Fold each of these.
Amino acid sequence: MTVDMPVSLLKNPELKFGAITFFAKQHKGDTCGSNGLPLTPNSIIIVGNAQLLKTIKSPFLCDFLDIIRGKHERTIVVSQYCGTPLAKIIDKHVLTHLQIKKIAYQALKGLSVLHKLDIVHRNLSNENILRQENGDIKLFNYGLYHMTNRGALVSFPVLEVLYTAPEVYLSGFDSGHVDKKVDIWSLGQRIRKILSLLQVNTSIFEKIAREHNCYEVYLNLPADLKELIELCLNIYPSKRLSCEELLDKLYFNEFRDIQEQKKMWEPFEVFSIQELYYWWQLAGGDVFQELKKQGLIRSSPPILSLPSLVLIEGTLLGQDRNPATLYDPRIVEMPLETLYQRFIHIPITAFYPLIHSKSDIISSSDPPPYDATGLPLVIKEKDPEYQFHRVILFRRLLHGYPFTKDLIRQEAEKDIPPLLRGDVWSALLNVPQGYERDYMRLDKYSHTTTDRQIEVDIPRCHQYNELLSSTQGHKKLKRILKAWVYKNSQYVYWQGLDSLTAPFLYLNFNDEAKAFACLSNFIPRYLHKFFLKDNTVVIEEYLAKFSQLISFHDPQLANHLHDINFDPKLFAIPWILTLFSHVFPLYKILHLWDKLLLCDASFPLHIGLSILTQLRDRLLTSGFNECILLFSDLPEVDIEKCVIASMQTYQSTPRSITSREHENEQFYKKNDLDIRGVTLEELKKESCPRISAADIINTVRKNPDKILLIDIRNTTLFHRSCVKGSVNIPFSSVSFNETVLDNLGTHSSLIKSKGDKVVAIIGDCETDLERFPNFLLQCNVSRVCVLHGDFNRFTSVIPTILTSGTTN
Amino acid sequence: MANRTGTAQRPNGQTQGKICQFKLVLLGESAVGKSSLVLRFVKGQFHEYQESTIGAAFLTQTICLDDTTVKFEIWDTAGQERYHSLAPMYYRGAQAAIVVYDITNQDTFGRAKTWVKELQRQASPTIVIALAGNKQDLANKRMVEYEEAQTYADENGLLFMETSAKTAMNVNDIFLAIAKKLPKNEQNTGQAGNAQGRRLTEGDTGPRAAGNCCK
Ligand SMILES: Nc1nc2c(ncn2[C@@H]2O[C@H](COP(=O)(O)OP(=O)(O)OP(=O)(O)O)[C@@H](O)[C@H]2O)c(=O)[nH]1
Ligand SMILES: [Mg+2]
């Protein structure tokens, strides 16, 4: 295998991209909206609008890649850019009529894709039609009119003067003329231009041809081409044909067959230009720098932009108009050499990772996988090569979803490539096929009583994020929330649902239905019953469990918090109700939820615990006020540490310790040996958690050295029958007056040296099941829990874990 | 350890003016600007995209009033009606409350009146209540007349000011007016039920009531 093979996979002449840049209109001074708050900057609105362009796929359109905001409303559009502009070609070559017809056909195909999405190109010129090596064409720069709200957000007109339809001039540039047929006019003009015809008599076309002294050429045109141009150049938009109508013309038949049949199924791409662009960025590619290097972005000293006069109300006078606010048609192509170099040693096999049926022989011939284990997550996410392998792999796995569900999960346990996170999450959340239809059916528009609350919450929800603060972002979030409320009539909108939805919308900005489907599957799994109109018992149970989990893992901290009356109710409600999406910025939530989605509904308790653990030293030395202030203003919590710590306690905690009555049994099946029927009152009285008989049996059988069983029944009963390996500290023998472990007599040393063993207390109806565990807790003994039910639970278990206790 | 008023006791026993701590709670419909008022008062800032409040948030601020230092322990509550059931936890034991409405929205004024009634019935009888008509900077969109609110405040013995968290107008003033009205001698302080040492989970106490005045 030669080394340059793989690079040639990357070095595809169509896998190239370029950027253009312009300025969005700046709002004057500090103008405010009707709510007294500053207006959304136009560049942010543009960013929101432009996202839709990312979804457009057509062989005749350049793929839209990215939109970047700079300072002072600068906006940069990154898009596929490959081939040669027609303008350059027709300078040197004469195209045959057949070639011209093909160009017209393909341009119409491209336009019809846009028109179906209500996007008008408005910018069709021979500069924006790129001819590929194989003779096919791609339209470029078709998104400007759409993303700028039909030109309203920029201070230059979005049009190509020579090719623009007459009605645009009639109605004025700013009237937001949207008729798609302006594109058809431009197309007609363009074909005419290619024929270097400049004219027309009875027809516009003939007139133009005459005016340009090309009447002869006009007369010699084949009838079909002539007709086509004339149809395009009809001055009445209503009579001008649409893309679809034009495409139906017989003279396009010769192109139709080959193109259309391919569309039977979506071919699997090994990687896409979006991914190439992503790797390019990771490998140091920087659009902004390239634009600077090539002189498209120039910074002038700020002093030059000072106005000569500032009126007291803030009006500026005498400021030079910055010529950069006009449209600059230059396109800067991005250099790919660095990326090619960086990936030069990647073998071709890496593009086709084996997933199933790995035989030893094959895998031994595999190149060693790129090793990044042990590197911090943030480093892994920035490593182009590692991300190359991850994206290639996940792309394949996702292609096979839902059949590859288990493999996706398995790989996600290592890490999730940020580029594909949206899809990986929805796979982890079991989003079913056909989710779009589901969403389409829901009412997202009728007025409801919740509307005001949703409306005031959305402009406060993760607004530092460009997508979520854009107009499109607001609209989408509102629709998703309303759809959710509509669909879940048993539930209501609680403030916080907006934050909870934000990560899903952010990741699936162009697939609202998927964002909704993710949310819809997420809530039953992690927040079952939390959105009931009266959720008091659900929340209180959860909070009580949280306190118990703190006691279980960190008795010293639990005792301190208890002493200063620092109740989780005062700070943890937003944590649990929004699963931290209200308290952390998005980038932290993403990493946190990457792990959450692999765990069950008890995981958030462990996240909470890990946050406390991270702040432990400060909490231990602080009083009530300082502690609560610490949480009102959550300081820099290191999320990676937090994730690791919560995973650790999650894995080392018997599941029944966090078992709740209000848990969704669909995801956590309980049987007779599990915990059931604990009332909220009982639960709130208990400082130490209960453990299920099932978990004890399991541990005694599989990891007997991980558990210390303390049987507090009286000695007679104990000797008659007890769990293997348990010790007997009869309840009546202990004096609880002082919190000193030595009071427990001979067994105290067992407890002192227990290490990280779980201490499970077994009693029966005669024993007090609160004082003993509380005593241990006060002595700072960790991992104390109490058997749910009593000793008799074990008698019917087969094979038995009991023995007659005489040996103890 | 649990005595939070300890800081106020000077080691040398000198009495250089009093230090008082008061628990103050903010109530009012969602998005009227409760959090914004607190942020302005405590940090002198205004965030246009102030996040909504879930549950409640706690902040403190100290102001000087003649020879007295007044420390406010502020509970900023969630405005959505659904969070109502949590509110007693915060206003019980409070010595002062600011009930906020948005002058551009009549409904929020109605909601403010409901809060006032509830406080009059359920909170400490000596609680000092202030009514704040916020977003005064949007006076051109006013839906609640100044006089209407003033009359209502007079009838109910409330302090009243129109405020703007955005421009800072009257923000410090309203807190100052409350501080002035609060009793600053020891007899008047323990009234709200000094809940120190009692557990919140028993359900009958709020976060520990402050209200200690130390000479
Ligand atoms: N124009 C103007 N806007 C304000 C003012 N105070 C707050 N706002 C805005 O009003 C919105 C709501 O303010 P918040 O402080 O979050 O309201 P809140 O009462 O705490 O709302 P909840 O937490 O939901 O109960 C935010 O967008 C603020 O920026 C003000 O004085 N003038
Ligand atoms: Mg608030």
Amino acid sequence: MPRKQPTEEELERRKIVGVNAETVTDVTSTDFPGNWPGEDYAWDIKKIIRDTKIEFHQNEPAEASFSLIGVDASIANAFRRIMIADIPTIAIEKVFIDNNTSVIQDEVLAHRLGLIPFTGGREGLDNFMRWLPKPKDNEPIESTYFDYNTISLELRVTCTHNPNAAEDEKDPRKLYNHAHVYAKDIVFMPVGRQVKYFAGENAIRPVNPDILIAKLRPGQQIDLSMIMHKGVGSDHAKFSPVATASYRLLPTITILRPILGRDAENFAKCFPQGVIRLEKVTKAEAAREGSGYEGHASELKAVVVNPMLDTVSRECLRHDEFKEKVKLGRERDHFIFNIESTGQWESDAIFLASIAHLKEKARKLEQQVVDMVR
Amino acid sequence: MSREQYQIPTGSQQTFTGGAGNTAATTSREFDTGIMYYTCGDCAARVPLEKGAGIRCQKCGARVLYKERTKRMVQFEAR
Ligand SMILES: [Zn+2]
């Protein structure tokens, strides 16, 4: 028996997550095989290529924002999780403290050093640097240290009095030399082929040179060396390439019946700036029967212009004058990603790397399924 | 970064390495004489004390002395 295929409107309606004053409805997706009688939702690569869209809103090295449209939450969430936990960066992993007479304790200092984001030449980081292999049994861990998996750094700072400081100087940074220890005081010690890969502007360096590591007073000293390895965020957050990688669903605001005059002004105030615009009711609209605008020509009406800016505060649902006039929701397959890089990668490159990573995971899974059947 | 077994430092101990080379050398010399160095709590001077000597800074006379930090390298995980 042939069944009626759903209309465009019906398909649009199925995509909307309802956001009400106290409840959220229709949170799960319904576009999978066997859910709707007579409708085929079998996995189809052509359909995915046709329906999936990516639109960038902002693309800067430190922050990128884009919409990923037409995919299931499982895919969008996989990208998010891969960006946080599976894209590798280098970070300080071991700290060898020869001397530390500062007020900050050794272990706290080591922890702080580990969290400093570093960057360097892309070619060296991507293609030259490799994972640190596990040492064989009863072999010391240093036996696996090579120029392609270990980067050496040093931090050697001693605080002294500044003889040239003015007598009434109060600022410790002028009164003493090296009163503040910054990330820029860390010195990169290249070995082997690192000299070639991390030369000049490609040198391994802190992304933000002005990160304060410790404060010293005359006579105090920090004297240590460090090593860095490649790692992933699932091991420790210091290896995560992103400060945030998150998504939200595109909000929808549907005005069911006209909101006019003072109500329209109050309605616009329920949303962040730029979401609602006040427009004059045209003569044509006022003349049309059943439009709800009859007799309201040249009055102000509320028009939704940019729901993407909405924070979905639901403020408009608290006021009786908007009852039955507005419906809030979210589009279930429209993910607005926001990615902030810690600096080792460019933000958009992290997303591209996450796609490559998911592909690689799928390839490995496919091989394992093939092996299982064999 | 030597990985030798931990040895309790004693006055007669000669083989005491670890940390930066030259500081280790001075340390073993200091151990030879049986003198321990402390830091004055008041004036931060380095105070040598012999066994049984009164606990007092020779510079300012303060009676609070701090033990010096180890000269050996200490390894930490940056986590
Ligand atoms: Zn003293």
Amino acid sequence: MNTHNTAALEAISICKSYENEPIIEDICVKIKKGELVSLLGVSGIGKTTLFHILSGLENPDSGTVKIYGETVTGHSGKVSYMQQKDLLLPFETILNNVCMPLFLKGTSKKNAYKQASLHFEEFGLSGCENKYPSQLSGGMRQRASLLRAYLFSDQIMLLDEPFSALDAITKTTMHRWFSNIISAHRTSTLFITHDIDEAIVLSDRIYIMSGVPGKITHELLMNSQNRCNPEFNTTKEFLEIKRDILQKINS
Amino acid sequence: MTKKLQSITNKLYPLSFLALLLLLWEMICKMKLVPAFMLPSPGSVVKALITDFPLLMQHSITTFQEAVIGLFLSVIFGVLIAVIMDRFSILYKAVHPVIILTQTIPTIAIAPLLVLWMGFGIAPKITLIFITCFFPIVINTLSGLRAVDPDLIRLMESMGASPLQILLRVKLKSARESFFAGLRVAATYAVVGAVISEWLGGMQGLGVYMTRVRKSYAFDKMFAVIFLISIVSLIVMKLVDIIEKKSMPWKYLNKGEE
Ligand SMILES: Nc1ncnc2c1ncn2[C@@H]1O[C@H](COP(=O)(O)OP(=O)(O)OP(=O)(O)O)[C@@H](O)[C@H]1O
Ligand SMILES: [Mg+2]
């Protein structure tokens, strides 16, 4: 198999039902190395369910998950997964929380701290190292959780609404910073969002899920040149893409 | 500042109520409403406390030691059993009802048996304290372990954590809060358990002293020792409080910092 063409992450005809109720059906997604793909769909359609399967936390009823061609269905710990809830440990400081994946890998405390503290400023968390999660705002907790996912692995990341608790201005800054990091490290990313603007501005590609049970009904390719234009989200072209997406989500 | 003032006034209410009760008690005795040998006045209780003070101290230390050793052992085994029961659900189903059942056995009823089996030394006393303290610790620790957010465990799994890592880094730490709730109850049981076990024999301890003064109808000394038992209970509880605050800094943020 040619490694240049194998996808970083691939899901082949995934089906999953809960209590005999099919939630998602025949889902196929493919993320190439360094690609940033977003997943759009109404609430309750099964996006998080798909992520649980992709991350290996849950087994699909049928279908396969592959990482660089290797079948990993049902094996967790391979990809970095930031969940919808921030899930910080209330009894650990922010520094210990974000270092958790490093501790689990057996990194010494000193090295973990050193590695983590390099990123506190970029993530807008400087000064929070020794605070507890309850002392942080929702947006800060989300960024801490993103930093934790990032420290686990910058190879393949699954992000479940990573920027949902941020205000528009912080969001724009985070977007810029985030696309820089990912393109620098060639991180392959799949992220769920409810913010269509965010999906258009950030992604190389957009998957749209709709129907009951949830299926991938559309796939849209974005023009990466648009991203360089900071005023792209005020252009007519942008609005047309947005209208198109809205229609497809609701179909 | 206002918080501090508030906590002082909060303490003022029960203290003044207590003072009122003592005053009432003293008056009842002064007016001879109850014969003095049945209800000694607070003054005579204090006097008894002072005259027997060195002796009472020795006895208190023995009781305190027994309580702490018994409590310590029940913490070690209680947490261990709770962890095992949490890990293996078959064991949980099998053992949990039995543990509940053992709680219907009255402590006082088995105390003489323990003395028969183990003699008059410290062993039956520690065993009795262990039996009474074990229950609240197991039950509370177990419910703490089982209450951990399953999403938190999934998160750890998604980061490749082993079951042991999840236990050490998430479960045990999350269960601390409910463990301490159990420990606080167990701490009071420990002192009472120690005194009851001493009633049945032995050379030292507040329970032994209590039996002696009861036999000689020294009611003032009897009350003095009851008072001391409360004090020892309070000391053990305060110790638990201090350990709790030290080990869960995130829960006492506003008081600790700022
Ligand atoms: N463990 C479970 N047991 C039973 N049903 C479940 C379980 N997890 C999810 N579901 C159901 O599956 C459906 C999809 O849930 P999911 O969390 O994947 O939605 P989502 O697309 O992520 O929604 P949102 O955008 O609101 O986060 C929902 O109807 C939910 O009730
Ligand atoms: Mg979701």
Amino acid sequence: MSDDQIAVHEPHAKPTTYVEPGPADRFENPGLPPHRPRRADVDDAAAKRAERQVTTLFGLSILGTLGFIVAYFLVDPNLRASILVIGHVNLYHVILGLTMAISLLGIGLGAVHWAKTLMPDTEIVEERHLQASDQEARDEAAGILSQGYRSAQLHRRPMLLLTAGGALGLFALPMALQVAGGLGPLPGDTLNHTVWRKGMKLLIDPSGTPLTPEMVTQGSVIHVLPEGFAGESSHGEDGPSALEIMEVKATASVLLVRLNPELIQSQKQRDWSVDGIVAYSKICTHVGCPVALYERQTHHLLCPCHQSTFDMTNDCEVIFGPAKRPLPQLPITVEDGYLVAADGFAEPVGPSFWERGE
Amino acid sequence: MTTIPQGAHAVRDQSAAATETTADDADPKLPPPVVYLDERFGVAKGFGLFKKVFPDHWSFLLGEIAMYSLIICLITGTFLTFWFVPSMGHVIYDGSFVPLKGVGMSEAYASTLDISFDIKGGLLIRQLHHWAALLFIVGIALHVARVFFTGAFRKPRELNWVIGTVLSLLACVEGFAGYSLPDDLLSGTGIRAMNGFMSSAPVIGTYMTFFVFGGEFPGESIIPRLYIAHVLLIPAILVGLFAVHIFLVFWHKHTQYPGPGRTNTNVVGFPLLPVYTAKAGGFFFIVFGITALISALVTINPVWAYGPYDPGQVTAGSQPDFYMWFSDGALRLLPGWLEFELWGFTWSFNIFLGSLLLLPLVWTILGVYPFIEQWITGDKREHHLLDRPRNAPVRTAVGAAAISMYLVLAIATINDIIAIKLHLSINDITVALRVLFFVLPVIVFMVVKRLCLSLQRADRETVLHGTESGRIMRTPEGRFYEVHEELNEFDRWHLVQHEAQRPLSLTAGPDTDEYGVDRPVGPLESLRRKLSDFYFKDRIEPVTPSELAAAHHHGEAEALPGGTAQAIEESVDRADETAGLRSDDRH
Ligand code: HEM
Ligand code: FES
């Protein structure tokens, strides 16, 4: 590699071989401009000063490192403080971070300053060779390949190539099948149902209190889970597992709102309600975030993820945003004074999926 | 191009004699450990590597930022694995963060709280990891922009560009996977959305979600699976591809900006030992140090404030980390009518387009760009000198237009925040952004292209008439003018070195044969000609020596104090003529 390098000191060195393509009427590359010495190159005091700056930075780094170690042991990890602009912080964390930053920045800035002031700043020219090999090398490579091909008898026995190719092309399939097949159960019709069944009580999430119609006041929104999945009833020995509760929350969460019965526009919505109390799936029909915001005046439900907006007075049709389908309604009725499901959801809840129309 | 360090102006023009270091170590010997290694591996033969030359430019540091943040992520991430428990098993929190005591949560979330509150310095490592991850992706984005706008992706580096695009995609996926691990309310909502994205895929969607989540959402598999992807699978591919990426940079030798003495067949810069080692090594510590500084002072992802994931809850203003904003924004802009039922199946293009399709699409376009440009230019030569972005106006404008589309999508992610802050209707903002997505790129394209052409024209002006010297002269008639100083040949070279690419319709001959009959051109070739026209029809050629000579001839008066005012005006007119835009359809 050393042969490739020519240190260019004289200012007007012309590049050796390069010919610029294009029309003849072009300027010529003037070669590297003359080197200008830096102050530290010609002035000893300046060089000394640069050295001092670099050693100071390295020294600072050492102090930072020591500071980190001392702080690690001596500062109380729960030390908290208010810092201007930043606000309330864990001071222990801040001290560790700052000492570490000093330790690192000292090295970094020192090294770069050293390179810029004291290391040579004369640019070196290295030749570059085109990537492509010359014809001779290519011919030789072709010879090697062809020789390998022929000595393996592939040119005379093509079936060897075909079967070997076929076998190599297929051998990974069993592995792929195993891993893909083992990843998860087939969906079946899991997505078409939730746990809601006829007669299940509507419980307040998270307390688990069963609801009577009187408890649902106008203007409030109540988050509801099916009987057995909220509050005490979900904790017992034979209660659902934490995993089951998560799955139920992800599919069967319901919002309960009392509307002025006159506002309700569709007959279906009225049939499935109790005195203006309507229950709708809380899972957004876009990609499944909980539709958590209720606007009292307009009776709109808003999904905080991508702002799909559903009109509760019009059977939760989408009035804005990227969702397409209305939130599914849960039919409810009253049994023994409590609000219960009159049936499960009539359609799949949550995000769209390929087979949901079937 | 030589850098003149602070305070050195006084010695600018002194002789260079004193600068050479004397060889005071006339007979250097290899240190014993190197001798030991050389006897076993022949390492001394490879020491030529230390003399390898690297060109120096601030924009080359952008890739280094990405490289160093990757290393910081690897180090801090390994630390995190010692304490992080990738399990969705249910526990009751009993750590030292009082507000969450007694709350049920996953082990993943609980262990993230432990890292943040009960492991000394654990919070610092978490913050370093997250900030380095963000810096990694910012570094990649800026690096890609540098490579794009300077044409560094041209032959022979096309394949390294492809590797780079794969790396950047993996970086985003890796970041998303990591972000999801703590299983807090915010990241859980992100996983919920990912589940929705997958189920929107035609035909295989439902199967895909069940296979990825190991059953119905949320299940218990997703965190362990994301974990192994995050700490093993993706890092392994990432590091492997990165090694190839950086090897190819060595192999091809770094590109360099054009300048005096720099040609397509050399590299001008500093040797690896000691200058580049000190600069690049030092820069690693600077990047690490700045990451530590930010981590100390600015909290990122305070998971304790969000609470554990609960599928029935959500925080308002949920946004992913910034690099996923464009995808989230696309989901907000795509209208609901893109979902429909056909043949009994549900086609959710409103979701599918913005999520599963958008990412591969964006990265495919990015990946094939060099091949498309090469096809259009027909330029099969090797390029080791970078373009100044202004000298490739259409490429620069296309890149800027693409960035503007990206930004519109990214801004759409905060449409709710904008609506609240600016008291605007979210409907109006969304509609406006939908329109902007199509209109803004066109405007940006036109503006940037014009800007590049004007800059090129200004370059020509400078070459032909020199720079303003600040000296005002008065003619005998009493008129004032400013003396212009001619550029020296080194400064001039920057402005005249490039070639203006000509469209194929000029270089490939006319479309009619010698009898005036249309030469049959296939539809593909005709498309190629059209694109070539689109790219290169409007162009500004660099000043040629004869043009400069002519300008001198006409502009004599300008250079000579006391020349006549008429001569000045004449020369200005003439410059306007020569610098005129060449647009081939104007003739
Ligand atoms: C370039 C690569 C990487 C990126 C972009 C990245 C990104 C992230 C992000 C954004 C988080 C969330 C951090 C938080 O705020 O809690 C995270 C968490 C995590 N990462 Fe990485 N990471 C990378 C590499 C690695 C590697 C190589 C490992 C391990 C070998 C690792 C281990 C972890 C662990 C254990 C967590 C969870 C701990 C926690 O969240 O506190 N990461 N990662
Ligand atoms: S999940 Fe509700 S709008 Fe996207």
